[in-house]
Amino acid sequence: MDSDSYSPTKALTTRYKCYACYKQYKKKEHLVEHMKISYHSAHEPRCAVCQKHCKSFESLRMHLTGPLAKANCSQIFSDRGCNLCLEVFDSPNSLDKHREMCCLSATASLAANIPTCAESHIYISGSVDETYACKGVEAVAIDCEMVGGGSDGSLSLCARVCLIDEDENIIFHSYVQPQIPVTNYRYEITGLTEEHLRDAMPLKEVQDKILEILYNGESIGKLRLSGGKARLLVGHSLDHDLDCLRMFYPDHLLRDTAKYPPLMKTNLVSHSLKYLVQSYLGYDIQTGVHDPYEDCVSVMRLYKRMRGQNHQVEGSGIESICDGFDFWKPKELEKMTPEELYEISRSNYRCWCLDLKASNPA
């Protein structure tokens, strides 16, 4: 019997290995089912040593430095890897130069960035001028500070709001007059007192100012369809901020660091902003009273770091989120190689790197 003849032992030991995450299956149909629910793509975090795909940066970090880390990857990463962006460099010297740029410094407090009126404690950066009205599509970061309302002070009311541009310049900042009485100023966190809100801007006026900035002169119809010239809104737990501001902004224009899959825990639970900044930017925030400018800068930096990743364009070049497996029959899929299955796989979230590609088309 020649070497190519059928062997029961050989058949039993055959494994079908996923091209992306390296999981192995006894049957080809099991690999196909795995690919259908895994949504592997070029946009996933991956090990710079073995190229294994991971669902999030947290799972990649565990692969490189966790208690069950891959030995070879762990050793190389410990010698030449950046513990913030998780990239690996060709020499310790290259790594040192990279770290100077990758590890950022904490920003100055809000008080150091805007003049405040000692009498009213209100500052507004002025009306939305031509500097912002004429710019192209850019991102704006927002952060709100909440005080408590209701009998037990548990109802969150927006009392302060800050917006910055991509260059960390303040576009708008104001104290906000709550629509119902404040029963808990949450002073230890917000640093706010009754005096801060005495002559604060009414919520409706705050809403109008923010929407004027975000809409960027775009019509509501186009805003809801493609966005047009409207600005992307960056933040952490944006649904909470928008709810307290009693505002709506289309989901496709939101960039939320609390809900972006690569930045979430492996069980798809959100990390705190404090953790994300320490882990991916290299400095500490919220060490005392929360500073809305500091949080705005942090989410903008996280967004730009994620957006700046240089990912390969997926198979067909189609950037929309779709399940490529729907276009193939089961028997056709089972005939494909693991690499071919990967080529038709698509992400189930929109990678932020596509924002940069959209604003700078080839």
UniProtKB/TrEMBL annotation:
Entry superkingdom: Eukaryota
Matching SMART domains, A to Z? EXOIII
Hydrolase as a keyword of this entry, yes or no, is: yes
Q: Which InterPro entries match?
A: REX4_DEDDh_dom (IPR037431), REXO1/3/4-like (IPR047021), Ribonucl_H (IPR013520), RNaseH-like_sf (IPR012337), RNaseH_sf (IPR036397), Znf_C2H2_type (IPR013087)
Which parts of the chain span the membrane according to its record?
none
Question: Key word Zinc present in the record?
Answer: yes
Q: Where in the cell is it found?
A: Nucleus
Domain named C2H2-type: residues = 16-45
Which Pfam families does the annotation name?
A: RNase_T (PF00929)
PANTHER family, per database record:
RNA EXONUCLEASE 4, RNA EXONUCLEASE REXO1 / RECO3 FAMILY MEMBER-RELATED
Protein name, entry field: RNA exonuclease 4
Organism per entry: Hevea brasiliensis (Para rubber tree)
